[in-house]
Design brief:
This protein is mainly beta and about 140 residues long. It is built from one helix and nine strands. The chain has one domain: Cystine-knot cytokines (Cystine Knot Cytokines, subunit B, Ribbon). Strand 1 (about 5) and strand 2 form a beta hairpin. Functions as a heterodimeric glycoprotein hormone with GPHA2 able to bind and activate the thyroid-stimulating hormone receptor (TSHR), leading to increased cAMP production. Plays a central role in controlling thyroid cell metabolism. Keywords: Disulfide bond, Glycoprotein, Hormone, Secreted, Signal. One of its GO terms (molecular function) is hormone activity. Pfam families: Cys_knot (PF00007).
């Protein structure tokens, strides 16, 4: 499961406001959707993805991931590279590894599939050793 970060957003790291206990917007109903449209920040939120690998059937997994919009800005400066950037992405702060068994795997394929579940998220630098960071331009 890879994170895809671009500018101010990370996807599988999806994040918005948590007016609650750090567990995201679960169970917040229609008002939560309205709050999410206005939210700037990073929080844990429920997310579903399809886990798959060659030789096994896919399995839909619902887990916690990071989601949000973080403050990003640039300003021109006189010295090279002629721009000062402050770019943060919504990313994992604390995770827990979870392993599930994929269904219908070939005899030669290990059915174990491990992914990171978000426990805490924050606005931070995109770390290329753990996150796929995409820049445009």
């Amino acid at each position: 499961m890879a994170l895809l970060c671009s500018g101010t957003a990370c996807f599988i790291a999806l994040s918005l406001l948590c007016l609650c206990d750090g567990r995201g917007m679960k169970g917040r109903g229609r008002n939560a959707a309205t709050n999410l449209q206005r939210f700037t920040g990073c929080a844990v939120r429920e997310f579903t993805f399809l886990a798959k690998k060659p030789g096994c059937s896919g399995l839909h997994i619902t887990t916690d991931a990071c989601w949000g919009r973080c403050e990003t800005w640039e300003k021109p400066v006189l010295d090279p590279p002629f721009i000062e950037s402050h770019q943060r992405v919504c990313t994992y702060n604390v995770t827990q590894l979870v392993t599930v068994q994929l269904p219908n795997c070939s005899a030669s394929v290990d059915p174990a599939y491990t992914y990171a579940m978000a426990l805490r998220c924050h606005c931070g630098m995109c770390v290329t050793s753990t996150t796929e960071c995409i820049t445009s331009g």
